[in-house]
Design goal:
A 4-stranded mixed beta sheet has the order 1-2-3-4, sandwiched between helices. Helix content is about 45%, strand content about 20%. The protein has a single domain, classed as VSR Endonuclease (Endonuclease, Chain A, 3-Layer(aba) Sandwich). It contains 5 helices and 4 strands; from the N terminus they run ααβββαβαα.
Length: about 120
Amino acid sequence: MLPYNPKLKQPSGRLRSSMTDAERRLWMRVRGKQILDVQFYRQKPLGEYIVDFYAPKARLVVEVDGGQHFEPAQASYDEGRSRYLSTLGLQVVRFTNFEVLTQLDAVIEEIFGCVRARKNPP
């Protein structure tokens, strides 16, 4: 099990109950082991962060980013966060809200490919 800050459990619960439309749509397509029988968790604390979606069996983090993630300060923060998560052996893939809302099948296909590659490494 990966380390996490126990103080993040309560905030992660609040985030689960107030997911964005894009997060809800994606959750409906990844929950319940729909992708290669891999379990995803939503708003999961990992280290000092809360990630949008996490698949431990594939060591995959999926982030759904709103417009604020394009601001230079937020983009820099996200980059550092992704670097930290990669030190834990995790792959981070990011999609925008717009991509999830307008191209959900393509997003699922990319997640499927990541899960397949990470679940069954060469």
